[in-house]
């Protein structure tokens, strides 16, 4: 199974590929802010992908709109919209 390493506490969790990053984090009791309830509207759940971005789902239209408006670099994704698809 694929793993997600959460910084700054170095917590490693098992990632279920059919769940978003946010769903994976919350199901493993990793606190993570999501003001809009995971709808992709607020950007508070954004994460920086340090490794394995090629293994993530494609950027959604919601992510594209927010990234353009807020000038996110390519490796910043919305945890509520992004899936970890392939093992590293």
TrEMBL record:
Source species, domain of life: Bacteria
Question: What InterPro entries does this protein map onto?
Answer: 2Fe-2S_ferredoxin-like_sf, 2Fe-2S_ferredoxin-type, Beta-grasp_dom_sf
Name used for this protein in its record:
(2Fe-2S)-binding protein
Task: Report domain 2Fe-2S ferredoxin-type positions.
Answer: 9-82
SUPFAM superfamilies in alphabetical order? 2Fe-2S ferredoxin-like
| Pfam families hit by this protein | Fer2
């Amino acid at each position: 199974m694929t793993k997600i390493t959460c910084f700054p506490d170095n917590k490693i969790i098992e990632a279920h590929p059919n769940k978003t990053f946010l769903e994976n984090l919350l199901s493993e009791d990793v606190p993570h802010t999501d003001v809009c309830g995971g709808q992709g509207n607020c950007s508070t759940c954004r994460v920086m992908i340090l490794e394995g971005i090629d293994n993530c789902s494609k950027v959604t239209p919601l992510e594209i709109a927010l990234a353009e408006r807020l000038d996110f670099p390519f490796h910043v994704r919305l945890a509520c919209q992004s899936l970890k698809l392939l093992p590293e």
